[in-house]
Design brief:
Radius of gyration: 17 Å
Largest sheet: 9 strands, antiparallel
Shape: globular
Structural class: alpha+beta
Distance between the termini: 34 Å
Number of helices: 4
Helix content: 10-25%
């Protein structure tokens, strides 16, 4: 089943709930692609030997793949600063749930803070489910319900946030181009080079579409 996405309502209730508008307004994969989000549906049952995942990594230059366990330390400011993690190569799975992560509520709050990165954010979800929220061209929130087998690429400079859903559990793989860069920058970041490049790309794409007509 393809990724489900929709425009969010404006309520301040439990962020782990779907937050559909009334009536629901679903968003197509084409609309997501228009704001730079890439998506693949893969088979996570044998991800270590998945030929399709290997092809994607090779085609897009994802030459560093980090799998880690939830045995890490976070800086106090977390997503507001460049993050530095204590990791060992063999500690290789992200398993995010209240029972397995120390200070879970604070970390979950930090993930929920709207931010950008200077590089792509590439996430392959192996188990469980959660929500990636992104801003579209009109600054509306789009909620993407990510589940097992979903591979998502968020472009550098896009405003976004993440939360678990009511399942309270997700396991994922993180992929990178080169060595990992953990820097996150909370909104507003309109003068950040990645944000400028991202918005310029949206403007250029809109201009090309108008010229075609």
């Amino acid at each position: 089943m393809a990724l489900k996405a929709w425009f969010m309502d404006e309520s301040d209730g439990d962020k782990r709930l779907p937050h559909h508008r009334t009536p629901p307004e679903f968003v197509s994969l084409d609309h997501l692609a228009d704001v730079g989000v890439l998506y693949w549906k893969l088979d996570p049952s044998d991800y270590e030997n998945d030929g399709e995942l290997r092809k994607i990594r090779e085609a897009r230059g994802y030459n560093y793949m980090e799998l880690r366990k939830p045995l890490f330390s976070w800086p106090a400011a977390d997503l507001n600063l460049s993050s530095s993690f204590e990791m060992k190569k063999e500690e290789d799975l992200v398993d995010l749930c209240p029972e397995k992560v120390d200070d879970y509520e604070q970390k979950h709050k930090n993930f929920w803070t709207e931010h950008i990165h200077g590089d792509e954010e590439i996430r392959y979800f192996l188990e469980g489910s959660g929500y990636f929220d992104i801003r579209d061209k009109e600054d509306r929130w789009i909620r993407m319900w990510v589940k097992s087998g979903d591979l998502i690429v968020l472009p550098a400079g896009i405003y976004h946030r993440f939360t678990l859903d009511t399942s309270n559990n997700i396991k994922l793989m993180r992929l990178f181009i080169g060595e990992p860069v953990w820097a996150s920058f909370n909104r507003p970041q309109e003068d950040h080079p990645a944000r400028k490049q991202y918005t310029r790309g949206l403007t250029d794409k809109a201009g090309a579409a108008l010229a075609a007509h």
